[in-house]
């Protein structure tokens, strides 16, 4: 099998791993008898591991090769996910850190490896790769939606599949590169941006990534406790969130030919805020998850387009800030939920979403 095909298969499973914690959260809370404050640390552990993996990924790829980095990341995810079926809370934090480390290793290295493959235009290849991630993200909650009592078997099965994929990636044939390896890489001509613009984008990345992770991660738990929820189908709310988010991102290219990215992003944030408010008012998580996914899906393309023109240092700061948002904001929701209720804790992402809309409306982002 060609390595590019193996990477696409790996990215489907990466999407599964990336979105697994939210649908698993109610089962983990029940198994380990966790208050929400401690449950929030599960998100922090995974995102902290992902930040470390992201920092290491491209540095390692330049020294040991992308295939070895991808294989190592796959083994990390295999071990971390499978271990969740058996370990206690303390080891569960460590297992999720391993999952995050694997995600951080795989996602940047895979994007770069595919972008540098055969052919001149890398955009279609990267789009196909991220569509593969989206397929995994949508599929991840579905087995848990229909068989939540078998979540441990699901984790073991996923761990085994990741092991198989790791071996496939390691054995894959390396396709030829679209660029002569003796030629220098194209120079980066983008300007560095002003300190204020870079700082504001970093703040937006911190707010957006943390809020998306918090909403997607805590919605299944909210649904499982909701008086209007289908308690044995709570993972379906996560599937609807990711289905909407991935679908709108795939359609963003056509949409942005008709409206500006800023207008789409602002509309998306307002829609997401309205969805969270409606969910809290009606106690129906599925519709709120679907609409919130549509809204949040419109924001990320705008931020990526902005940071892409500001140079490598700004991009590094942007992605590190996004990772740190994933560490802090879902954990903060857990702390608020422990002190009040999970419904009250959802006021935090609601407020942050409105703050982001206000920042976007000023025209400074």
Offer a quick outline of the entry.
The protein has 365 residues and is mostly helical. The protein contains 16 helices and no strands.
- Distance, first to last CA: 44 Å
CATH architecture of the largest domain: Up-down Bundle
- The number of helical runs is 16
CATH superfamily membership of the largest domain: MFS general substrate transporter like domains
Taking all Cα atoms into account, the compactness measure Rg is: 20 Å
Proportion of residues in helical segments: over 70%
Please indicate the percent range of residues in DSSP E strands (runs of 2 or more). Answer: under 5%
The chain-level structural class is mainly alpha
Whole-number total of structural domains:
2
Chain-averaged pLDDT: 86
CATH class of the largest domain: Mainly Alpha
Oligomeric form of this entry? single chain
User: Looking at CATH, which topology of the largest domain would you report?
Assistant: Growth Hormone, Chain: A
Question: What is the global morphology?
Answer: globular
pLDDT under 50 segments (min length 5)?
175-190
């Amino acid at each position: 099998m060609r390595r590019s095909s193996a990477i696409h298969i790996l990215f489907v499973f990466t999407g599964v791993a990336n979105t697994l914690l939210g649908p698993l959260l109610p089962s983990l809370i029940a198994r380990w008898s966790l208050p929400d404050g401690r449950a929030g640390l599960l998100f922090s552990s995974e995102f902290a591991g992902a930040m470390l993996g992201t920092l290491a990924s491209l540095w390692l790829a330049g020294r040991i090769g992308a295939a070895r980095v991808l294989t190592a990341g796959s083994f990390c995810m295999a071990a971390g996910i499978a271990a969740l079926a058996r370990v206690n809370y303390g080891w569960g934090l460590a297992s999720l850190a391993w999952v995050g480390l694997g995600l951080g290793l795989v996602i940047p290295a895979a994007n770069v490896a595919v972008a540098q493959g055969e052919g001149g235009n890398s955009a279609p290849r990267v789009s196909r790769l991220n569509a593969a991630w989206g397929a995994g993200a949508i599929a991840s909650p579905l087995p848990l939606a229909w068989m939540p009592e078998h979540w441990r078997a699901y984790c073991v099965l996923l761990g085994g599949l990741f092991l198989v994929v790791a071996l496939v990636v390691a054995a894959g044939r390396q396709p030829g590169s679209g660029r002569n390896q003796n030629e220098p890489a194209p120079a980066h001509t983008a300007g560095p941006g002003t300190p204020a613009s870079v700082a504001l984008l970093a703040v937006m990345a911190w707010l957006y990534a943390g809020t998306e992770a918090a909403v997607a991660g805590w919605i299944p738990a909210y649904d499982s406790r909701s008086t209007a929820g289908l308690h044995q189908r709570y993972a379906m709310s996560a599937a609807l969130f990711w289905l909407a988010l991935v679908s709108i991102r795939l359609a963003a290219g056509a949409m942005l030919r008709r409206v500006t990215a800023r207008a789409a992003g602002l509309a998306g944030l307002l829609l997401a805020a309205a969805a969270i408010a409606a969910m809290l008012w009606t106690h129906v998580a599925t519709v709120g998850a679907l609409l919130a996914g549509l809204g949040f899906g419109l924001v990320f393309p705008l931020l990526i387009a902005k940071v892409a023109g500001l140079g490598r240092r700004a991009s590094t700061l942007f992605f590190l800030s996004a990772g740190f948002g994933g560490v802090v904001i879902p954990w903060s929701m857990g702390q608020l939920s422990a002190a009040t209720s999970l419904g009250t804790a959802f006021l935090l992402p609601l407020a942050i979403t409105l703050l982001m809309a206000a920042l976007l409306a000023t025209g400074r982002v």
